[in-house]
Amino acid sequence: MKTILTENQLRDGVAAMSAEIAARYGTEPLTIVAVMTGSLVLLADLIRQLSMPVRVSLIQASSYRGGTESGSLWIRDDMMLDVKDRDVLVVDDIFDTGKTLEAVMECIAEMQPLSLSSAVLLHKKERQQVSLVPDFVAFNIPDEFVVGYGLDYQDLYRNLPFLAVLEPAEIEANTV
Ligand code: 5GP
Ligand code: MG
Ligand code: MG
């Protein structure tokens, strides 16, 4: 595999995005809704850089069924905290077409938060298919399938501390 963001680059990018989030919300309490499972590592690093009162809520969403092709979208919100009248920040791993984040934002908007914004680790700008724009982005990346720092290929590679592009042979090796 080919590393495209090192552990140090990820740390610096997440720190910079955390500073922007801290500047926006100040000392106001913030409810973070993390889109599982890809945002797990970002969530852990991000919340430890925020000093306002933070609540952590989880939502599960996926538009990808195992491989690298886009599939149907589903959302599971039974692990959500009550977000009515709260300032809510949705955190996800990557904004690709944007369909996943758009659906999650629509789902949470129905829960009547006081405010609603979004933060993503990665943005593949060329692939965008929705009008929604993420409020906070740590890195813009080219249109390549990436793994590591929470992002998977067939549920593997989330534990890599860096972000990498898989070689075709590595994709084939994991295809069941
Ligand atoms: P979207 O709905 O924006 O097209 O897709 C977003 C979701 O697809 C992400 O939350 C992520 O789970 C998955 N995804 C999109 N691009 C990539 C990628 O390059 N690598 C991995 N591992 N997942 C991706
Ligand atoms: Mg995801
Ligand atoms: Mg995935």
Automatic annotation (TrEMBL):
Determine if Nucleotide-binding is one of this entry's keywords.
yes
Cofactor section = Mg(2+)
Which is a Gene Ontology cellular component entry for this protein?
A: cytosol
- Kindly state a single biological-process term from the GO annotations of this entry: hypoxanthine metabolic process
What InterPro entries does the annotation carry?
Answer: HGPRT, Hxn_phspho_trans, PRTase-like, PRTase_dom
Q: Name one GO molecular function term.
A: magnesium ion binding
- The EC number(s) given in the record are 2.4.2.8
Show the taxonomic lineage: Bacteria, Pseudomonadati, Planctomycetota, Planctomycetia, Pirellulales
> What is the protein name given in its UniProt record?
Hypoxanthine phosphoribosyltransferase
Give all residue intervals belonging to the Phosphoribosyltransferase domain: 4-154
Q: Which reactions are catalysed by this chain?
A: GMP + diphosphate = guanine + 5-phospho-alpha-D-ribose 1-diphosphate; IMP + diphosphate = hypoxanthine + 5-phospho-alpha-D-ribose 1-diphosphate
Q: Does the keyword Transmembrane helix apply?
A: yes
Main location as per UniProt:
cytoplasm
Q: In which pathway does it act?
A: Purine metabolism; IMP biosynthesis via salvage pathway; IMP from hypoxanthine: step 1/1
Domain of life per record = Bacteria
Alphabetically sorted, this entry's keywords are: Cytoplasm, Glycosyltransferase, Magnesium, Membrane, Metal-binding, Nucleotide-binding, Purine salvage, Transferase, Transmembrane, Transmembrane helix
Subcellular location(s): the record lists: Cytoplasm
Record-stated family: Belongs to the purine/pyrimidine phosphoribosyltransferase family.
Species whose genome carries this gene: Aureliella helgolandensis
One Pfam family it belongs to: Pribosyltran
Q: What class of enzyme is it?
A: transferase
- NCBIfam families according to UniProt: HGPRTase (TIGR01203)
Q: Which residues cross the membrane?
A: 30-47
